[in-house]
Specification:
alpha/beta, Rossmann fold, elongated, binds ligand PMT
Length: 399
């Protein structure tokens, strides 16, 4: 699933220390199939050279409005005609002021002024500069003029202080750009996704859990958000970072996940339970259990969150997953009915390339009507994309 395949991204680099991170952005966009060209201001060239970006983009890097290029005779207009999206990153306070005023005193500002395509501005500067009312006023003007803005990240700044002003993470900029090209067909819907395992503690240092990296659920949340849904992701402990635009609620145990899910249930249109919730929990003791030859653990059933959601279902569309090692479709069908679901994603977790941890998955869908679909092995993002397509279809039928 390559939404950026053959998309033309024009990157405008300006004079900020964060310019050193732009090679990573270019790589990241290229890895997703995009073609990239770059414009650099004079300030940008104080931090990285045009040669670096030429080598990476495998294209000439454009720096001078008065230089003639036979492939682009009117350089500041022809370049933006080529682009599907113009991304100004990092955007210095100076460029933001110039864009807000409509100035055109170099190639980048002239290209922006004549640009027929959407422009994304990613500010990066010192916190005091970013929070300066003049910069904030200019950013407000840009927003009103129809520019797309990403907020700078908070963290260590080049000047040695902590604060807001860092260029957003390259992964977040890439996700923003990918999302831009998705249809926004879930706009107006609220989608709740669960992911990851839950951990059920038996003492302060030990827990029992289920296998799950969270990749499947995180991919679903990413695609739902990219397609315009207000998306909330509730996840047990994983090493993953939620995608840009996804509201994230971390939890640990089944009880915490249940509480978080139920507190939002009334207000959402779709729930997708991809989490591998532990079915059992031990009795908790507050001191570390001493090592013995043998330890007998007594486990009690955790509450089945999806079952509770099924019981309380009103307007919500309820989608479950079934992780099985045998009788896949029979078991998934049983869970669909028992938990009052609209759709279940049956996941044979012992098939190669499917289930836990892998980048790919192979699933079958069973609808409430009894209709079934068997999907081939696909990346988890592709599974998420198709699943959202099917959910959209059901939502359209309901409306
Ligand atoms: O995270 P990854 O490494 O990417 O792996 C993805 C996955 C294999 C975990 C995922 O695709 C998957 O199959 N998730 C469901 C795992 C599971 O718990 O299946 P189950 O058949 O035991 O449960 C059925 C459904 O009830 C699930 O939607 C589950 O979230 C839900 N459930 C289960 C137990 C419980 N106490 N409460 C629940 O709500």
């Amino acid at each position: 699933m390559q939404v950026l395949k053959n998309k033309h991204i024009l990157v405008g680099v300006t004079g900020s220390i964060a310019a050193y991170r732009i090679p990573d952005l270019i790589r990241s966009l290229q890895n997703k199939g995009a073609q990239v060209k770059a414009i650099m201001t004079k300030g940008a060239q104080a931090f990285i050279t045009p040669l670096t970006l030429s080598a990476l983009t495998r294209n000439q890097v454009y720096t001078d409005i008065f230089e003639f290029h036979s492939e682009y005779p009117i350089i500041h207009l022809n370049l933006t005609d080529w682009a599907d999206l113009f991304v100004i990153a990092p955007a210095s306070a100076d460029i933001i002021a110039k864009l807000a005023q409509g100035m055109a005193d170099d190639l980048l500002t002239s290209a922006a002024l004549g640009c027929p395509r959407p422009i994304l501005v990613c500010p990066a500067m010192n916190t005091r500069m970013y929070l300066n009312p003049a910069v904030q006023r200019n950013l407000n003007i840009l927003e009103k003029l129809g520019f797309h803005l990403m907020k700078p990240a908070t963290g260590n700044l080049a000047c040695g202080v902590q604060g807001q002003g860092r260029l957003p993470d390259i992964e977040d900029i890439t996700t923003w750009i990918e999302s831009f090209f998705f249809p926004k067909d879930l706009k107006g819907y609220k989608v709740l996704v669960t992911a990851g395992p839950t951990q059920e503690f038996l003492d302060p240092v030990r827990f029992i859990s289920n296998r799950s990296s969270g990749k499947m659920g995180f991919a679903i949340a990413k695609i739902a958000a990219a397609r315009g849904a207000k998306t909330i992701l509730i996840s047990g402990p994983t090493s993953l970072r939620p995608s840009y635009g996804v509201e994230f609620i971390p939890v640990v145990s089944c009880a915490e996940m249940k509480e978080a899910v139920l507190s939002l249930y009334e207000d959402v249109d779709v729930v997708i339970m991809a989490a591998a919730v532990a079915d059992f929990r031990p009795c908790y003791v507050s001191q570390k259990i001493k090592k013995t030859e043998r330890l007998n653990l007594e486990l009690e059933k955790t509450e089945d969150i999806l079952f509770v959601l099924g019981q309380r279902k009103r307007h919500q569309l309820l989608i479950g997953f079934a992780a099985e090692t045998k009788d896949l479709l029979k078991e998934a069908q049983r869970k669909l009915q028992q938990k009052n679901l609209d759709l279940i994603v049956a996941n044979d977790v012992i098939q190669p390339g499917a289930g836990f941890e892998s980048e790919t998955n192979k699933v079958s869908l069973i609808y409430r009507s009894g209709a079934r679909e068997n999907w081939p092995l696909m990346s988890k993002e592709a599974v998420a994309m198709r699943l959202i397509d099917r959910i959209k279809r059901i939502l359209c039928r309901i409306c």
